[in-house]
Specification:
This protein has 541 residues and is mostly helical. It has 26 helices and two strands. The longest helix is centred in the N-terminal third of the chain and has 30 residues. The protein starts with a helix and ends with a helix.
């Protein structure tokens, strides 16, 4: 009798506990209402005050922010709704609005992952009181929650097989902050797994373009709007900025470990794509794969801020509700991230700086546990990846040493073409009236295109069919893409910078450069010309 009575009241007890959790989350945010961090006082409050003093149009045309226009729209919205309110309260209102959206999206995701309504509400409540979520919004006043909400909703729709809407949501996240790209590798793999055309990804830049249109019509330069993220990536030259990742275990040598870290991270993601993960049909496996990808990227990618692990924190917790025995991974990840927040937000760097290698160890532990679960579910096999790399290296070695003469001729020919194309770029830039800095900036693209898409890709081309069956026509079409990209950037640069091409010399130089890069980027042409050069040399020797 007593047991049945307790059982009948158990749902109400759960509801009471969850209400208390939500109340606790609101109370914590209220207690932090007057806390002003360095980011708040140095960036967000001046940004809002600039808008209040100069008006929305001037704030859009002559911004003091380094964020996309979406954040300016939000500042204008809260300032209009609550005129006369203290600036830091308005800033926190924006971030807490992001918390609310993230919470609602989390519920939808857990339901998409086949969690019960009660478990979904419990997961939502946990996200609402997560330490890093509260600190990010109410101490940092950063906008990760505004990015996390559409990302979580996008993943939720992806689990429901509503992929176009999912990409649309991810496009919204990308329009707010660049760090949304952390989700893209997993997104691409899942789309390929489900047979979805990758061309549907055009929705991401399309949404971004729509969000910047009001600012463009207000009078801001289009090139400035399109290059916002490029400017952001060049702001800091640190391997890590308080992030709990691998770079706390390595020497602080930016020039060496930054490119190595980038190559390692992208290389591993490429190998995962080539190995074609399996068993991704269930929502739990998809969510686990996405979470592992996010944690891996934030742990190994250089130039990470502590707050960039926000997405890893939220997704590990949500994954733990879908797969309960992964709670240790969630606790490790959130613990590492929370500890990395404290030195900057609460000025505890002197006390906690020496513990960062330990914080990184916690994050690495979370990554190991997540990967072990992927292996247990037979989604990814490390042995397969190692054997693939070994076979590839053997094939490349055999190819290089079996035909060294042709390879040397191709390299020589490529260097000549790079020189000619570089000269064309310089000449065109001189005719168009570009400054020296702009000339260097534009011309640096040419050798990068040459080396990446001729030398490396030509070697890969010989072994590609072993791993990824690509028809010959498609392969050469892909290899022609760099030339078309250069051509479009070249033409677009003149239009955007209001320096139209005039006269036949400019047009001639442009098309010469275009076709040179086309030839340079296609190994089929290179190998044919290299063979003819060898035959020509043999006739004289």
């Amino acid at each position: 009798m007593n047991k049945s009575l307790v059982k009948s009241y158990l749902p109400y007890l759960w509801i009471l506990c969850l209400c208390f959790v939500f109340y606790y989350g609101i109370e914590l945010r209220w207690l932090l209402r007057d806390f002003i961090s360095a980011d708040t006082s140095n960036y967000f409050i001046p940004w809002l005050e600039h808008l209040q003093q100069t008006g929305l149009q001037n704030a859009l045309v002559n911004p003091v922010t380094n964020y996309t226009p979406v954040y300016t729209y939000l500042m204008a919205g809260v300032n209009t709704l609550l005129p006369g309110t203290d600036s830091h309260y308005l800033i926190k209102l924006i971030t807490n609005f992001g918390d609310l959206l993230t919470t609602l999206a989390s519920y939808h995701l857990l339901r998409s992952a086949k969690c019960s309504p009660l478990k979904a509400v419990a997961g939502t409540a946990t996200i609402f009181v997560l330490p890093t979520v509260i600190l990010n919004s109410n101490s940092f006043t950063q906008i990760e929650s505004l990015v996390a909400a559409p990302l979580i909703m996008g993943v939720s729709l992806l689990l429901c097989n509503r992929r176009s809407l999912a990409i649309l949501c991810i496009g919204v996240a990308f329009s707010i902050k660049f760090q949304s790209v952390f989700l893209f590798p997993a997104l691409v793999i899942l789309l390929v797994y489900h047979g979805q055309k990758l061309r549907s990804l055009w929705l991401v830049p399309f949404v971004y373009f729509l969000t910047i249109l009001p600012t463009y019509f207000a009078g801001r330069d289009m090139s400035d709007l399109l290059l916002i993220y490029k400017k952001q990536t060049g702001l800091y030259g640190d391997l890590t900025r308080n992030a709990a990742n691998v770079y706390h275990w390595l020497p602080d040598n930016y020039s060496v470990f930054m490119p190595l870290g980038m190559l390692f991270t992208l290389g591993v993601l490429f190998l995962v794509i080539v190995c074609k993960p399996q068993n991704l049909s269930s929502p739990e496996n998809q969510l686990l794969f996405i979470t592992t990808s996010l944690v891996f990227i934030t742990f190994f990618l250089p130039k990470m801020h502590e707050r960039y692990a926000y997405f890893s924190d939220v997704f590990t917790v949500l994954t733990a509700f879908a797969i309960p025995h992964l709670w240790p991974a969630a606790l490790l990840m959130v613990g590492a991230s929370f500890c990395s927040y404290l030195p900057y937000v609460y000025h505890l760097r002197d006390q906690l700086d020496k513990f960062f290698p330990f914080f990184a160890l916690l994050a690495f532990g979370a990554l190991v546990l997540l990967y072990q679960e992927l292996e247990r579910r037979q989604v990814i096999n490390l042995g397969k990846i190692i054997s693939l790399v070994t076979e590839f290296l053997k094939t490349v070695h055999q190819m290089v040493w079996s035909d060294r003469t042709r390879l040397a001729a191709m390299l020589a020919y490529g260097i000549i073409l790079i020189g000619l194309t570089q000269w064309n770029w310089l000449k065109l830039s001189e005719i168009a009236g570009y400054e020296k800095y702009e000339v260097l900036r534009y011309t640096v693209l040419t050798p990068i295109v040459g080396f990446l898409f001729v030398y490396v890709w030509t070697i890969i081309n010989a072994t590609l069919d072993r791993f990824v069956p690509i028809p010959a026509y498609t392969r050469y079409w892909i290899l022609d893409l760099p030339s078309w990209m250069v051509f479009v950037l070249f033409l677009g640069g003149h239009v955007v910078h209001d320096k139209p091409m005039e006269g036949a010399p400019v047009v001639l130089v442009m098309f010469t450069s275009f076709f040179a890069v086309r030839i340079l980027g296609n190994p089929r042409y290179n190998l044919q010309i290299a063979k003819r050069l060898i035959d020509l040399v043999k006739t004289f020797v």
